[in-house]
Design brief:
By secondary structure, the protein is an alpha/beta fold. Helices cover about 45% and strands about 5% of the residues. It has 16 helices and 4 strands. Helix 2 crosses helix 3, helix 2 crosses helix 4 and helix 11 packs across helix 16. It is globular and about 50 Å long. About 30% of the residues are buried.
Length: about 325
């Protein structure tokens, strides 16, 4: 790793650590590429990544962060910054904006990002609401499967589902293979009722899509929808205005079989300490760190989006 590694992250003293806090991690080792020759070639072709320039590019992004956002509490590890460069095809300015958006999202939606750790989401994981399939697709993409019918609204709010999705994305993106290949989202709408669909109104839809498209360093290569109920047209009508054309065109139909959720749940729960360290520490005030940096679309004030139940249900009823 370059000699300038994670120096800006604040580290509370051992005496001030709460029961949810862990000591700061050791300085990470120097970056070692884990990509196969095939994936190195794919990254070069699709992402404009040149192995001989990789660390130079990382250093350039690191310098930009230090110059433009000197007080930003963020990792500056080679491996961490590479996620943002790959997600934006090594365009320095776009990678920097994505990094700022990433932290802006986390600070602007505390209900989702505070205390984000696997043990806090055991009910969601046990429900089978989401899992990652054990095998990748032919292009090497991991498949994130979401099954809204497994959610019982009276058990916990919809934000808990969103927390579980984000937790899963954070775990997936640790892999360099995923950074290059991207992921596929498989949404199984079997059994989704009108009352359940109405919880996912335009305000929440806009915030979630804003994070996925502009606030997280992952490449979404396809969105497959299976077992669509009649109300799916209404659900899609809610989210489509916020989708970029590139993603909006990635919709498919079909049917899905039974899934095993235990393997992925075990992977997440084994990562507890990583998430406690990253998401359960106090963070500086949002405004003092990011200043005038604009939020991704969808993460602005609640007052800017009408999320009334009447408006949502009118769109869904129109499908009947």
């Amino acid at each position: 790793m370059s000699e300038e590694s994670d120096s800006l992250r604040t580290s509370p003293s051992a005496a001030s650590l709460s029961e949810n806090e862990l000591p700061p991690p050791r300085e990470p080792p120097g970056y070692v590429c884990s990509l196969t020759e095939e994936l190195v070639a794919k990254a070069k072709e699709e992402l404009q990544e040149k192995p001989e320039w990789r660390l130079r590019d990382v250093q350039a992004l690191r310098d930009m962060v230090r110059k433009e956002y000197p007080n930003l509490s963020t990792s500056l590890d080679d491996a961490f910054l590479l996620r943002f460069l790959r997600a934006r095809k090594f365009d320095y300015d776009r990678a920097l904006q994505l990094l700022i958006n990433y932290h802006s999202c986390r600070r602007s939606w505390p209900e989702v990002f505070n205390n984000l750790k696997p043990s806090a989401l055991k009910d969601v994981l046990a429900s089978g609401f989401l899992t990652v399939l054990p095998h990748t697709d032919p292009r090497g993409c991991h498949i994130l499967c979401i099954r809204p019918d497994r959610w019982i609204p009276s058990n916990y709010p919809i934000t808990e589902n969103i927390r579980a999705v984000y937790l899963t994305l954070e775990k997936l993106i640790q892999s360099e293979e995923t950074q290059v290949n991207g992921i596929v989202i498989l949404a199984d709408y079997k059994g989704v009722s009108l009352s359940k669909a109405s919880h996912f109104g335009p305000f929440i839809a806009k915030k979630v899509i804003g994070i996925l498209q502009d606030g997280f360093p992952i490449r979404i290569k396809a969105v497959h929808v299976v077992n669509e109920p009649r109300i799916f047209k209404g659900i899609f009508a809610i989210i489509k205005p916020f989708l970029k054309e590139k993603i909006a065109n990635r919709e498919y139909g079909g049917a899905a079989g039974e899934l095993d959720i235990s393997t992925w749940n075990t992977v997440l729960l084994a990562s507890e300490e990583d998430f406690v360290r990253e998401f359960c520490q106090p963070v500086p005030a949002f405004d003092s760190i990011l200043g005038e940096a604009p939020l991704p679309e969808g993460l602005t004030s609640d007052a800017q989006c009408d999320d009334s139940m009447r408006a949502v249900k009118s769109q869904l009823y129109s499908c009947y």
